[in-house]
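ASSEMBLY PREDICTION REQUEST
Request ID: AP-0331
Submitted by: J.K., bench scientist
Number of chains: two
Total residues: 772
Priority: normal
Notes: Please return the full assembly, not individual chains.
Input sequences:
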Amino acid sequence: MDMGKDGMRNTMRTTSKVWLFVFVFASAALAQNFVSPKPAVSGPAYDLSIGYANLTMAVASAGHANLSGVDASGTVALSERWGAVVDTSYLRTSNLMGTTHQGYMLNVQTGPVFYALQHGNTRVFLRALGGGAIVDGAVPINENSYFHGWLARPSYAFGGGFERPVSQSLTLRFSGDYLRTSFYDSTGSVAGQNNLRVTASFVFRLKERLHRSNREPW
Amino acid sequence: MRSFRNIVCLLLVSTTAAFAAEAKAGASLSFDQTIDQVVEREHSFVARLKTLHPLSETYIQNLHEDGDHNILPVSDQYFLGRLDLGDRPKDASFKKQRTKFTHHLFNPFSSAFTYKYLPQGFAQMAILDANMQKNNYHFNFVRREFLGEARCIVIDVQPKEKAPKGLFIGRIWVEDRNFNIVRFNGTYTGNSHYAYYLHFDSWRFNLQPDVWLPSYIYSEESGTKQSSALYHDLFLKAQTRMWAYDPEQLSHDQEFTQIKIDNTVDEHPTAKDTAPVEAQRMWERSAEDNAIDRLQQIGLLAPPGNVDKILQTVVNNLIITNKLEIEPEVRCRVLLTAPIESFTIGHTIVVSRGLLDVLPDESSLAMMLAHELSHIALGHHIDTSLAFNDRFFFTDTDAFQKLHFDRPAADEQAADSKAMELLANSPYKDKLVNAGLFLKALQKDAPVLTNLISPRLGSKMATTDTTVMSSVFSAAPALQEQRVDQIAALPVGSRIKQDPWSNQLSMMNANPVALVSAKEKMPFEVTPFFPYLSYSQDDKKLVAEVPAGDQATK
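STATUS: Completed
Returned structure:
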């Protein structure tokens, strides 16, 4: 594997720092909102999103491959700052690492989302997802040959992003996740894959706002 | 004595002069200076409110518009709590049952599928801005207007562009004597994707000299009225009432300082030993007194007053015409809450404010009181464990869990039969049509208004299948909702007026109104508040006792 234990450790370390940074920011934001009046009504708030996703997938002993495709998700708000998300993405490439193999990844995950910051109309969120992934890929054995196959294994992801409304019910969302999946290495044994997924989506809010005039979009 | 009187007069005149000077100054203040005064007063108001712990009751009706454009309640919600308006409003809720662990576990998910009302959010509407800053708002003078006795300056208030979220937007009414905000009407800015501020109309009463405190809040949202699994919109009306401000009422400390003990021994010649029956009665009476005392101390029961006397008159009519001899005597008291209920605590009949408000006439009241009187006449005893004072060592908000005055079904049926006997001998015997209609309306709305028609301390009065006093129910004609002249029940808050400081009750002094259409009948429905604002008696006295000429010259 290109990304050995050290690489993995570095990735984890960086991600932890990012999370810590955002949580500290979130605490500051919560403190700033201290004097705002308590709302009288809460819930329910749902949204559905669909968008374009790009995945940089680590391939054992061969570097990285780029996959792209669609990402769809649904979110339900459970409180002012917490929600639950179901996310699925289908990403493919027509030529995996020059092997002519058409690889793909189907990922279905769910987990909590935390709205860490809200500045004007823009919201920053963090999320941690768990689920399963089917990875269909290929691993070069030497310069002329490779083996291919597919593998279904648990997967997890964590990351964050931001979203900004562009109209009453339409919002733009940009997110980035560290995605951990599994596939075979060149020895034929199952190894972890460290992937980076970036997504740009349109979000459709499934609820009308209460006050149509004079109010922020959310 | 004369010198004392002179000092009082001097103080009175000088205070009045100060008031007059202030009022005169108020008249000459620029609009900008007036706003400065308003902001300053609002800061004092918030500081004072933080030291008080009133009860806050919110009753919400969710509405639906049918195909014929009739707007009807489809469900309701009720909150009662003790407010702590500290840095962040807190509300300790009175609950009938302890919240189960599973409720906490699944509670976050409940609001994923339906709206969740937050009691603190309704109480929050008592405060315009916890830290009002003049530079956060645009103020625009609208007009001058009287709200009852209070001459008010009406001002539109809008947050500035760069102002933070959560500020008030709407209209305020400022009484022009001391620049207190007495009413504000609007909402707060900055709803999130998940939580909302409602539109509200918040009223403050002059409860103490120069002290205006939140008393009534009416909230209303009427969105698109569409509703489906994924598209929700709030469509509701709600009333929030606040009372039990008087901190002295919450403790007996002040009473202690007033007690004077004479060093004398009771040598009255008629003093005698207590017979067993008498001892039993005294024991029951002490249980009754303990319960009543505790309920009044919490602020749930009104102190004895004029409304009790009205109830007592009706009860006396029933007692005298039926030649009942009841010892100790029957008393009547009013529970200050909105849910419709009545019950007995020993020989005390307790009727809720909510029930008194919606009863259509005196005969209906007589029917309810006859039912409770029958419990007493039949000897349905009080739980004598209440004679032990340690039973009352619980926090106020546990009152509904610790105190139960409901009766077994057999007792309720026996009381119904006895009440029919009492009514048959009473002046109300031929006037029970409206009482029957009231019961029919109660039964009709019982499945919908499950929080209003649901007792907190007594027995249930109506279910989908049954009501109390079923004989009166059966004898009544059918409900005809479209008939303007058939009034089965009144809207919520139709009869009783409450002093939020002392909890004293009085009957509303409203003119009878001829209904234009059946839609105005609004049985059991929430309506807006429009109280007549008046200055507290002490303030009035100061002005009344000094001749007008004196005020002008001083």
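REVIEWER COMMENTS: Chain B has two domains: 28-103+115-245, 275-508.
SIGN-OFF: pending second reviewer
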